[in-house]
Write a structure and sequence with these properties.
The complex is a heterodimer of chains A (97) and B (387). Helices cover 46% and strands 4% of the residues of chain A. Chain A contains three helices and two strands, in the order H-E-E-H-H. Chain A is rod-shaped and about 85 Å long. The mean pLDDT of chain A is 75. With 387 residues, chain B is mostly helical. The N terminus and C terminus of chain B are likely disordered. The chains are: A mainly alpha (97), B mainly alpha (387). Chains A and B meet through helix 1 and helix 2 of A and helix 4, helix 5 and helix 6 of B.
Amino acid sequence: MNIWDWPMDIGGKPSWNLYKNIPAFIPITFEFTVLCAAHGMVITFYLRSKLLPGVTPNVIHDRMHDDHFVLTVEGKVSDETTIRESLKQVGAVEIRS
Amino acid sequence: MGLGYYQLRLVGRYWSRRTLISAILLLFRQKWRLSINRSAEAMTIFAVICAASFIVAHMGRPWVAYWPLPFANQFGSLWVNFNSPLVWDVFAISTYFSVSLVFWYTGLIPDFAAVRDRAKTKARKFWYSALSMGWVGSAKNWQRFEEVSLVLAGISTPLVLSVHSVVSMDFATALVPGWHTTIFPPYFVAGAIFSGFAMVQTLLIITRKVLNLEEYITIYHIDMMNRIILITGSIVGCAYLTEFFIAWYSGVEFEQYAFINRATGPYWWAYWSMMTCNVISPQLMWSSKLRRNLFVTFFLSIIVNIGMWFERFVIIVTSLHRDFVPSSWTMFHPTWVEIGLFIGSIGLFFVPFLLFTRYFPVIAMSELKTILKSSGSQSKKGVQHHD
């Protein structure tokens, strides 16, 4: 639109045709790509990981963000003792059910 | 005066160069980045806010600040000029700001969650819950988090390089002698790293003292940052000399006059202050004793900040005060409004920065733990390992 209506020759850099003008569009193309890529990715990450303000977190253990790892194991009630045993064997600090 | 207009605008720019540090260091997997990246990113964001406020204030009619955006309008055939680096700048700065902001915030989420889980009062619990957005740190969350951080760092590094290049093109595509220089893009990028690290030094030396972070931000980190200041300071010095050489080599008398006038004309003091602060004083950093001395580092970082301010002053004021048209030759005298705006910008930077150090985790805790693991396994073997 600008090329058509307002042809300009500034400092020996004519803008009368699109092909002469292409280099001028490169920075904006790049910036806009980064803008869309970065925000698209972060928004996807937030949604996929269910991160939104107001979400109540399911905090299993108080110290899981501090200095401990928490492992949750789903299983039948009848297996509880075997699971407890094997976890204790590999050095669990604390086991809750 | 017209001069004042440009002067102020660029004082705004002075604030706007920080970030790349953390993104580039993440990309190069430098472990020592972990202690400084959070605060460096915060400085970036607050600095860009200052810079943006200057640009809006100098548009003359700030209530139509949205006009540089190519929106569908009723102005007939009038449309933003895509040939103008000022329009590129609008895109570059807004992308830079918003991407830095999400990069910073995403990194903060696990740390907010850690603060939330240890919060004692109800109000703290409420605010940090809201800020951490329900992060629980499951293995799946962490895997996605790591991937997002890495890709964000990967795309923000060329972004930062492009932003500083575009900013420099605001000058380089102009015809004013002293601005019309092809070396500007790399020179501005080096200058940004240089002044960015100097500002990080100034603020972190105080922060680590006040918040008792000496064990996290160690002399080793300060040493590493000083090395980068030395290298980039020398690159900037090299660029200054190259400008002179090209002015002579081009054979354009206007260019030659501009550069001789810059060093020996009425603004010689600004030029030589810039040279002393930016090129000569960082050379002290060749000595490892001085690099590891807190007082010397702090003093030198202030000197570098002053030097980078003078660089802006030299580029803008000395180039404009001897324009092509002798009738516009003049000297620059700042008005009280200009001085006030400059002081105000310092406030606009420090208020959010102080709030940040008060309420936000200043050190990227969750990231720092990833390197604790290795030192933890070493300490089990009885090896004490610091840094």
